[in-house]
Amino acid sequence: MDQGFHFIRPLWLLLVPLGPLLLWWWQRRNDPLQRWKGMIAPHLLPHLVVGDHGQWRVRPIHLVCAVLVLGGIACAGPTWELDPPPFAEDRAPMVVAIDLSPAMNAIDVSPTRLERTKQKVRDLMTLRAGGRVGLIVYTSTAHMVLPPTDDPDLMNLFLGALSTDLLPPKGQNAAAALALADRMLNAETDPGTIVFFTSGFDDTQIRAFMEHRESSRQQVLMLAVGTTKGGPLRAASGALATGADGAPAEAKLDDEALQRLSDKAHVPLASITTNDDDMRWVQREALHHLAIMKDATSTVRWKEYGYYLCYPLVLLALLWFRRGWVVRWVFVIGALGLGGGLPAPAHASEWKVVDWFFTPDQQGRWYYEHRDFAKASELFQDPYWKGLALYEHARYEDAQKVFATLSTPDAKFMEGNCYARLTQYEEAKDAYDQALRMRHPFPQAQANMQLMDKLLKLQENAPPQDEDNENKPDKVKFDKEGKKGTGKTKLMGKLPQQVPSDVWMRNLNVSPADFLRTKFNIENQAPPPGQPTTPAKEVIQEPGA
């Protein structure tokens, strides 16, 4: 949609001719020749009128006329290009679906196809710089690893745990991964993109992709991982895999099947590259799809260029002042305004110009949006926003105390998140339950409650840890009667200190790989009759998720 140069508010252009008309009227009114024209003969009039009417100089009326012309053009909104949606990159959600079939262990792409895919996802997270990316893996079944997140460290934690032995080795059920990714993105506000990393495709699932293209607002991109020449397969142990005849097993890229999918379902297809051109292509396609969908559902936004005319208007305004103290004080006040900064913290013992124009909450919001959560938490007076700033600053205990003073569903939801970050899962469940009682439905709170149940179950089923000197019981009492001489009661001393909040995910009793393997095994179990399988969210849902 390119209209070239035009005006957003063209009616303001009616002010433009008023400037020349006003100047013409003023000159005619103040011209002595015009006033005496009917009283003195025309051939004598020029010689009888004296004065400086023949010399031109800048007068206030000229400034007024210039302000009308420039102001009319500025208010009309000259423009010649579209204004992209604010935070377009952040608002273009994406889900990555990775094929975990054994063919992804081929070494025709160094070091293996799967490892190269992991690196590409890391590159994509870096390129998006805050963009939300979810993660799905699939073979014969599809499973969610992470919902859309903008945390590259969290993504890297679970990427490193992926291997082809996490799922059944047979099958490439891309249709199941497509349906799961579609459900994840349907929960987002903006339309998103599903990116497949695979080395093959099952032709029987082409129809599912064709139907998806007709009914879904999410676009699908396909990235081929591997070469048509193929390469040997590497086993889980790191050695080369062999076939039944003892010869090295090889896997080739099924480019023909992928091309048939691209042709029939109109799915853009590309191959991974040695540089970041492939991920830049993915990012461009995601933003282009978002822009197209936004154009169809929202008002077109044009970039405003009329603001640049404010600079000459300010210069014209300065010409209204005569030389003297007024001009000097204008520059003094301007210097104070520039020196005050925007924004600056407000202190009782000192004043700053910014406090004249912005409340502490407004200043805190500025710091919050610029991710300076420490200063934002100091400035916010609104308790909910203060709690959010403390939470983002990883001060979960302080944030929990703030949220506990509020009685809104959002505050109780965030209180539960604070407890969860502190690994106090029972208290987190209680807080989520209160949020659900206040607001229903509340899908984020419901998802987090299910996550707390799973984490509590994992803690209960986790094998006992070896006791160290720091956690040894002070005493061991034998209950000879209650357990017939076999029972023991441990009386613990001082409880160990709370685990730092920034490593709470790494403090689980299982590794990420074991956690995923257990999760996938649970999800692969057959659901009760009449109840569809619903993948559980394994990451705490936070505001905006």
Helix content: 40-55%
Q: Mind telling me the C-alpha Rg?
A: 34 Å
Mean pLDDT: 77
Apparent shape: elongated
Number of helices: 21
Biggest beta sheet summary: 6 strands, mixed
Termini gap: 32 Å
Beta fraction: 5-15%
What is the number of E strands?
Answer: 12
Strand line-up of the largest beta sheet? 5-4-3-6-7-10
Going by helix content, strand content and strand pairing, the class is alpha/beta
The stretches of 5 or more residues where confidence is low (pLDDT under 50) are 324-350, 475-508, 528-538
Characterization of the model:
- With 545 residues, the chain is of the alpha/beta class.
- Helices cover 44% and strands 10% of the residues.
- It contains 21 helices and 12 strands.
- The strands form 4 sheets. It has a 6-stranded mixed sheet with strand order 5-4-3-6-7-10, sandwiched between helices.
- α5 links the parallel β3 and β4.
- It is elongated, with a radius of gyration of 34 Å.
- About 13% of the residues have low confidence.
